[in-house]
Amino acid sequence: MHYWSPSLDVDYEFEKLVNRMHPPRVTVDQITDKKSTLIKVDSANKRGSLLEVVQVLTDLNLLIKRAYISSDGGWFMDVFHVTDHYGNKLSEDIVTDHILQSLGRRGCSFRSLRGSVGVQYASENTTIELTGRDRPGLLSEVFAVLADLKCNVVAAEIWTHNSRMASIVYITDEETSLPINDPDRLAKIKQLLLYVLKGDLDRRGAQTAVSVGFTHTQRRLHQLMYADRDYDTDEYDTVPEGSSSGRKPVVTVENCVERGYTVVNLRCPDRPKLLFDTVCTLTDMQYVVFHSTIIAEGPEAFQEFYIRHTDGCPISSEAERQRVIHCLEAAVKRRVSEGLRLELCGDDRIGLLSDVTRIFRENGLSVTRAEVTTRGSTAVNAFYVIDSSGQQVKSETIEAVRNAIGETIKVKEDETLTKSKSPAQQTGGFSLGNLFRNRSEKFLYNLGLIRSCSEVA
C-alpha cells in the first residue's frame, strides 16, 4: 500500500521544473565508432537515471559493448557503445524516444518497489509474486494449484539461485479471461500457494503477493531475490560441485580515500543484460553510481563503479564490503541458467503448464529457470532443466518427455552457459583504471572531472 505525503508532490513538481529547464538530450552517433553505435545521454541528475537508461537499452535487446558514465554533481552524462543482438550497428534510431520517455516520466521516481524502471502494463492480468526455497517439483505443484483454482497462466518468469526461487506469474480467470479481483478468491490463491512454497525445510520463510497494476518483470525478480537474501548460504543451501552457479565472478571492493568513493571492480564472462543486473543490485542496496567504465568487447566483461551510499558515505566496514561482493556475485549468477534449454511452442490451452511441468517431474527433471509467454492462441515457453540428481540430462529422458507432451520441443544449449565455460579466470585483484587508462582518462578529462590525465592512478 502506498501512503500519500505532501512532500511527494513537492518533489514531483520540482522534478518537472528541472526537466523543463534542462530537458534530457539523447544523441545517436553512427560515425565515431566503426563497430558500434554511440548513444550519448545528457540530463539533469536524479537518483535512478542510470538504471532507467540501462533498462531501456536492455529492453530493446541491445548489447552494451562499452560505456562511460558520470553523474557527479547536478548533471548526468553517459556514453554507451551498443550493437544489436547480432553484433551489428543499429540501422535506425530506435532508442531516443524510449530514453527521453523514461527520463521524463513520473513512474520512475523510486517511491516504491512496484513503481520501478521500465514499467510493463499488467492491468489486464493479475500478478502473483512468489519467493521460497527451491526444490524438485515445486513449479509443477504451483501450476497444478493454479489450474485447480481455475486460473489461466498468461505469462510467467521463474528464476532460481542458491536454492532459492522467485517467480512472477500473470494470470486471468479461466472462464472470463479477465483479471481476478475477488478478495476471497485471491486470499485462497495466496493461502494455497504459500502452503506449497513453505514445505518442510524453508528456514527463511516463503512469501506470496497478489496485485493488479504496473511491474517490470526482471527488475522485480531482482528485488524479490535480493529481499529473500539469495546471496546468503547455509547448510541447506549448497551449490552442487561443478555446476555453472559455482563459478564465481571476480569482484573487488576498495575505498578511494582521497576522492571519497568506494571503487567496485567486477570481471566475469560477458552475456546480455549483465550491466542491467549489476546496476539493479547496486540500486537495491541503496548505492549511487557516480562514475563508471564498462568494457565488454570480448568473451569477458569488465565493470568499474565509483559509488557512495545514498547518505553520501563510502563503504565503512568489512561486513558491508563483503555484502557488496556477495550481492554482486548473486546478481551475475541469477541469470546464468543451468541445464538444457527446452523450447515448447504450440497451441495454448488451459492447464498446459501444469501438464508440462508434471511430465518434467515424473521424468526426474528439475526446472532451474522458465520463461512463459502467450502470443494470441500460441504458447511460447522456454524451460531450463537439469536432472534431479544434478547430473546431465540424458537423451532418452528428453525423448520420453517429447512423447509424453506430444508437442514440438526444441533442445538448445544456452549461450550464457556456453560462454561461462571459457578458460579459468584469474583470481587476483584488477582495476579497469589500469586496463583501460588511456580511454577512461581522456573521457574523464573531457568532462572536466580531472585536471590532467595523469591524475588518475
Strands in their spatial order, largest beta sheet: 1-2-4-3-13-14-12-11
In DSSP terms (H or I, runs of 4 or more residues), the helix count works out at 13
Described by the principal axes of the CA atoms, the overall outline is: globular
Topology, number of strands: 18
Radius of gyration: 23 Å
Show unreliable segments.
1-5, 106-121, 235-246, 414-430, 432-441, 443-457
Binned strand content: 25-35%
Largest sheet: 8 strands, antiparallel
Query: What share of the residues lie within helices?
Result: 25-40%
Mean pLDDT reading: 80
End-to-end separation: 48 Å
Structural class: alpha+beta
Describe what this molecule looks like in 3D.
There is one protein chain. This protein is an alpha+beta fold and 457 residues long. Helices cover 31% and strands 30% of the residues. It contains 13 helices and 18 strands. Strands 1-2-4-3-13-14-12-11 form an 8-stranded antiparallel β-sheet, with helices on both faces. The protein has an 8-stranded antiparallel β-sheet with strand order 9-6-8-7-16-17-15-18, sandwiched between helices. Helix 6 packs across helix 7 (274-284) and helix 7 runs antiparallel to helix 8 (318-333). The longest helix has 16 residues, at 6-21. It is globular, with a radius of gyration of 23 Å. The model is unreliable at 1-5, 106-121, 235-246, 414-430, 432-441 and 443-457 (pLDDT under 50).
